[in-house]
């Protein structure tokens, strides 16, 4: 059976002030995988996601979602940004934030109706935040805020989910809840791409991995790619094999 690719990246190069952040990246991400993007600080992990989502403009290269440019496939994609990039003081309630995930399908003219409200409440329940639906987002803990943004992504009913360090600053209970939701998405045929920094949890959480350090080091199934040799190539002297024991 021929493998179907959700995301294809060809010859991607991104530079900031003439300094390459990503260099000549080729990447084919199969449909239905739960993939970690792993690499040291400054490796270009978040930049890769932002380039795919047309947030960052590349110097060179082509990117497609199911064979078409992102601008034509926007409705198929959901994105959970890094928690630190969000203005948490914006005066809005948790349910309103989740409902924003329906705007892409409604357009900006139509307002969310009963169907969208029901979807938002179901997503809040799925992430364990239904009782906080009327709480101002600034009054939520870091883990609760992350769950709200995950719920917003869920109501988009996307085919491809991008998440930039969703476990950053959350407690163990929240991390366990989030990874179960991500595994459920994969089980339902969705493609989930996660910027991740904890090497110890990669084998337990993910079935696909991309190792990145400005250049792509390796990509493929975790049990084939996530080896000491490849990690040493990715992290250099920073890598200590004992970290995986």
Distance between the termini: 36 Å
Radius of gyration using CA atoms only: 18 Å
Q: Which strands sit side by side, in order, in the main sheet?
A: 5-6-7-3-8-9
Count every helix, treating DSSP H or I runs of 4 or more residues as helices: 10
Helix content: 25-40%
Structural class, please?
alpha/beta
Task: Explain briefly what this protein structure is.
The protein is an alpha/beta fold and 245 residues long.
Could you walk me through the main structural features you see in this protein, from its secondary elements to its overall organization?
With 245 residues, the chain is of the alpha/beta class. The chain is 33% helix and 25% strand. It has ten helices and nine strands. The strands form two sheets. It has a six-stranded mixed beta sheet with strand order 5-6-7-3-8-9, sandwiched between helices. A hairpin with a 2-residue loop joins strand 1 and strand 2. The protein is globular, with a radius of gyration of 18 Å. The two termini are 36 Å apart.
């Amino acid at each position: 059976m021929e493998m179907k690719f959700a995301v294809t990246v060809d010859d991607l190069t991104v530079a900031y002030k003439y300094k390459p952040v990503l260099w000549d990246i080729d990447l084919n991400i199969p449909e239905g995988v739960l993939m970690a993007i792993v690499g040291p600080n400054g490796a270009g992990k978040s930049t890769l996601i932002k380039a795919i989502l047309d947030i960052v403009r590349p110097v060179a290269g082509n990117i497609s979602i199911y064979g078409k440019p992102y601008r034509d496939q926007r409705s198929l994609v959901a994105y959970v940004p890094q928690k630190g990039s969000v203005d948490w003081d914006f005066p809005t309630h948790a349910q309103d934030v989740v409902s924003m995930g329906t705007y892409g399908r409604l357009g900006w003219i139509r307002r969310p109706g009963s169907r969208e409200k029901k979807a938002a409440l179901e997503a809040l329940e799925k992430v364990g935040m239904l009782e906080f639906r009327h709480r101002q987002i600034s009054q939520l803990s870091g883990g609760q805020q992350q769950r709200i943004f995950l719920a917003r992504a869920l109501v988009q009913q996307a085919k491809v989910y991008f998440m930039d360090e969703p476990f950053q600053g959350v407690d163990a209970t929240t991390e366990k809840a989030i990874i179960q939701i991500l595994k459920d998405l994969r089980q339902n045929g969705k493609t989930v791409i996660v910027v991740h920094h904890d090497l110890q949890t990669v084998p337990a959480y993910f079935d696909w991995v991309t190792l990145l350090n400005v250049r792509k080091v390796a990509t493929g199934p975790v049990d084939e790619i996530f080896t000491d040799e490849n990690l040493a190539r990715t992290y250099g002297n920073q890598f200590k094999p004992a970290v995986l024991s």
